Each structure stands twice: as C-alpha cells, then as structure tokens.
C-alpha cells in the first residue's frame, strides 16, 4: 500500500498546521475533492469542519447536540448514495447512539463513518457523562462495524484513507493530545497493525494515546538491555490476530496500553486471542479501571491512572520479573 496521497487543498504551511491541530478536518476536505459522494455532518463539532464547510457548504449539515438524529439521517443519506462522515464527541456519538448505530447503520450495512473526538478522559473535567471509556467495547460488539484508533495526526490521515472504501460503517476514534509516533503518514493496511519496533524480550501493544507511551517506554527499556516488540493496534475490528500470535509466541509476555476501560478493550482482545490460540503468554494490562472514575484535568487524570511512559516502563519490568 502506497503512502496516502493528500490532494492540494492547502498550502504546505497550512498542511503542517492542519496535521498539528486538525488532521481529521484536513483529511476529509482533501478526500471530498476526490469523491463527490462525501458529505459531512457535525454534532456540535463544527469548528473541526470549518475548512470543509467553507469549501463545500452544500455538503455540510449541522445537528448541534442531536447526536442520535445525526446517525439516523446519515443512514438515510447513505441509502441515497452518499458517504456521510459524522464528527461527534465520542461519549455521545457512540454511547448515546448505540441503538442507532446498530439498527439504522450496521444492520443495513451502510457506509456511514463516525469520527469520534474527545475520547477517553479528554473531557474529564465534565465528569462521568463526558468520559468515553467504554466506546471501543460498544463499537466492537456491533456486527459489521470497523473500529480504528489512530496513534497520531499522521495516522489519522492514513486510517481515514484506508477505510474510505469500506462497504459498511466505520468508527474512527481520535485521541486528543497524542504524542507523535510517525514522521510521515504511515502505510496502514486494512486490518493490520504497524510493527514499530523489533524485540524478543516482551511485547508492547497499544492504540491511540497509548501508542506513543509504548514507543517512548520501549526506548527507555532498551537502555536497560530490554528489547520490546512494539505494535500499533490501529485496527481493533478487524484486528491483526497473526501479529499477536507471532509476537507472543516469541516473547512469551505482553503488556497492553490504552485509554479505555479494562473491560472490552485492547487488553481483553489480546487475552481472548492468547487463550483461544493456546499461546500460554503472561499478560498484563494498563488501562482505566472498572470503577467510578475521578473528575479533573485530563493530563492529571492520566497521570493518576498511570497512563504515562514511566509507568509503562515500570509495568513492563514487573511483568518481566514475574510480579
């Protein structure tokens, strides 16, 4: 698969800014130039789509906080030959709209794309109603739903490209403030996990915000003589089962890292494969606990719950020591 081609929507300087601040908005504006079927819908995230709205005002719909309506309208538009991209806050676009996603979109196999912003604890200061920590579990449980989780801005561009022609629905979960992982938009094959680092001592698998943590932790572990095999779990449905099997068979131990509940996320996925394929690997999960989560500034919440590169190092060393 070749590097995703971005059409000339912005100047080079504007592209750099878009990648740093609004990759999902830039990607959809670029793709719309190539495909007149693409239209966008906003559930109170219109600022993300400002460039698209200016360029294609007749292909933009604003729904405000009527998230459930946006899903159903998108389903109707998809039956008319359009490919709707809904930009929504993940705690509402997935959790609030699970019935509409399942019945209106997935059951009818329609090409609706839900672009979820403000995932994990990105709105932690608003409390439980604004946490998006069960969204992967819900989305993966919906038959026919493709679920992708970009590691950084470049991966957003690549994953929007690699899922553009998927026949059914797609949930694209964008992490806020993720550290850069890729120097340029990576080649990401549908359903496959980019292999970021070779190692035989331990496997680190992460997605979204966690990928940058795993990469930085692996660099620190190398200075201690530990070589980690690192994967970016960019696709969570379908997912790269063979990558799990090959790596865990070699290393015998794995740590998963994610800003999602420990229930139904990446850790559960890897544990399922390990058990079903009888790999016998030691498994440790770094995720958000299945408790009532605290309310606060997102960066402080991630520190509180141990979603840091330092803690990935600590958890990896404990796994290797058998703790």
What is the structure about, briefly put?
The chain has 323 residues and is of the alpha/beta class. It contains 13 helices and 12 strands. It has helices spanning 12-21, 23-34, 50-55, 67-79, 90-96, 98-106, 135-141, 153-162, 209-222, 241-251, 266-276, 298-304, 309-321, and strands spanning 38-42, 60-62, 83-89, 113-117, 146-148, 170-173, 195-197, 202-206, 228-232, 235-237, 253-261, 282-288.
Question: Keywords for this structure?
Answer:
single chain; 323 residues; alpha/beta; Rossmann fold; 2 domains; 7-stranded mixed β-sheet; 5-stranded mixed β-sheet; 13 helices; 40% helix; 18% strand; disordered N terminus
**What radius of gyration results from the CA coordinates?**
19 Å
Strand content: 15-25%
Q: What is the total domain count?
A: 2
Number of E-type strands: 12
Judging from the principal axes of the Cα atoms, what is the shape?
globular
Helix content: 40-55%
| Alpha-beta content class | alpha/beta
Question: In terms of per-residue confidence, which ranges show pLDDT below 50 for 5 or more consecutive residues?
Answer: 1-10
Instruction: Kindly report the oligomeric state of this protein.
Output: single chain
CATH class of the largest domain: Alpha Beta
CATH superfamily of the largest domain: Thiamin diphosphate (ThDP)-binding fold, Pyr/PP domains
Biggest sheet, open or closed, and with what strands and sense? 7 strands, mixed
Q: Largest sheet, order of strands side by side?
A: 2-1-3-4-6-5-10
Written as H for each helix and E for each strand, in order along the chain, the element string is HHEHEHEHHEHEHEEEHEEHEHEHH
H/I helix tally: 13
What's the architecture of the largest domain in CATH terms?
A: 3-Layer(aba) Sandwich
Cofactor: thiamine diphosphate
Keywords: Thiamine pyrophosphate
Family: Belongs to the transketolase family.
Protein name: Transketolase
């Amino acid at each position: 698969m070749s590097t995703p081609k971005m059409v000339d929507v912005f100047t080079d300087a504007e592209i750099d800014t878009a990648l740093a601040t609004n990759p999902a908005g830039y990607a959809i504006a670029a793709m719309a130039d190539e495909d007149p079927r693409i239209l966008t819908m906003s559930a109170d995230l219109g600022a993300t789509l400002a460039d698209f709205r200016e360029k294609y005002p007749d292909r933009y719909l604003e729904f405000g906080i009527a998230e459930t309506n946006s899903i159903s309208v998108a389903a109707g538009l998809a039956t008319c030959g359009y490919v709707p991209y809904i930009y929504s806050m993940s705690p509402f676009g997935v959790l609030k709209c699970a019935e509409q996603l399942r019945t209106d979109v997935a059951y009818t196999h329609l090409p609706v794309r839900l672009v979820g912003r403000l995932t994990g604890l990105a709105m932690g200061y608003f409390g439980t109603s604004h946490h998006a920590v069960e969204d992967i579990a819900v989305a993966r449980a919906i038959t026919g739903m493709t679920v992708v989780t970009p590691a950084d801005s470049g991966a957003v561009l690549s994953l929007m490209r690699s899922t553009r022609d998927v026949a059914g629905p797609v949930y694209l979960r964008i992490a806020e403030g993720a550290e850069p992982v890729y120097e340029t938009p990576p080649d990401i094959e549908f359903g496959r996990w980019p292999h970021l680092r070779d190692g035989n001592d331990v496997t680190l698998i992460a997605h979204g915000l966690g990928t940058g943590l795993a990469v930085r932790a692996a660099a620190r572990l190398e200075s201690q003589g530990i070589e980690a095999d690192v994967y970016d779990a960019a696709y969570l449905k379908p997912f790269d089962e063979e990558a799990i099997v090959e790596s865990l068979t070699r290393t015998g131990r794995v740590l998963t890292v994610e800003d999602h509940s420990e229930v139904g996320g990446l850790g559960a996925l890897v544990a399922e494969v390990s058990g079903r394929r009888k790999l016998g690997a030691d498994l440790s999960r770094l995720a958000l606990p299945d408790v009532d989560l605290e309310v606060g500034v997102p960066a402080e919440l991630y520190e509180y719950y141990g979603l840091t590169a330092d803690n990935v190092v600590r958890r990896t060393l404990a796994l290797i020591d058998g703790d």
